[in-house]
Each structure stands twice: as structure tokens, then as C-alpha cells.
Design a protein that fits this description.
With 128 residues, this protein is an all-alpha fold. The protein has helices at residues 2-24, 28-45, 57-66, 76-80, 82-88, 93-97, 103-117. It has one domain.
């Protein structure tokens, strides 16, 4: 009986650890740097920045899942893609710094930052 309880406890810890590890993979700090130095820089040039706190977690999640940017003219994933980062890295230090980060990793980092900085997130964020 003791062995059974120990194995059950161990299995629960492993599952919790796996869930925590999956959550810990996204680097919200890298997402913040990328958002502020790449996304915000471009949006300011185009007429106005969009603060992470302007949307809820659910709204950011839906936006990223839909993968529609500029009213559907292009995709969000394009802007975290290596091709885009290569095209702006000469003038953007974050794009240069993260040039070799896998696209999905950077997308996950961006999502983690937007969730944290959302209107209903842990730490609502402005664009400054």
C-alpha cells in the first residue's frame, strides 16, 4: 500500500512538473523585448502603438490563433518569422538579437508576454 501511494505521488509530481515545464518554456521577458522593440516600433511608424493592456487574455489568444494581422492582409506569424527578422535586423536590435530564435519559440514568447500584460493579466502593460 505504501509503495502504491508513493508511486501515485511520484506520478502526480511528474505530471505537475511536465505541465510546469511546458508553461516555463515560453519566455515572456523575451516576448516583451520583441513586442516593444519590433511590434511597437512598427506600429508607431504606421500611426499608433497597441498596448498589451488594450485587450484581455482571451482577446489576445483569439487574435494569435486567428493569425490575422492588418485586418487579414498578412499574418502575425510572418512578423515573428526569420524572413521578417532578417529584413529588419539591420535597423532593429531585437530582430538582430533574436535572429536565430525558432519562430514557434518567439511566437510562444510573444503570447506569454501578451497574456501577462493583457488587461486582465498578471501585470497589465503599456507600450512604454
Amino acid at each position: 500500500m505504501t509503495t502504491s501511494k508513493s508511486l501515485s505521488a511520484l506520478a502526480a509530481l511528474v505530471l505537475l512538473g511536465a505541465a510546469g515545464a511546458a508553461h516555463a518554456e515560453a519566455d515572456w521577458k523575451r516576448g516583451r523585448v520583441y513586442y516593444r522593440m519590433v511590434c511597437t516600433a512598427c506600429h508607431v511608424e504606421k500611426g499608433g502603438s497597441i498596448a498589451p493592456s488594450s485587450k484581455t487574455i482571451a482577446e489576445w489568444t483569439a487574435y494569435l490563433a486567428a493569425d490575422k494581422h492588418a485586418k487579414g492582409k498578412d499574418t502575425v506569424k510572418f512578423y515573428v518569422g526569420k524572413k521578417y527578422r532578417d529584413s529588419v535586423k539591420a535597423s532593429n536590435k531585437a530582430a538582430e538579437k533574436y535572429a536565430d530564435v525558432a519562430e514557434q519559440d518567439l511566437h510562444d514568447d510573444l503570447k506569454a508576454f501578451l497574456s501577462k500584460g493583457a488587461k486582465d493579466g498578471e501585470s497589465p502593460a503599456s507600450c512604454n
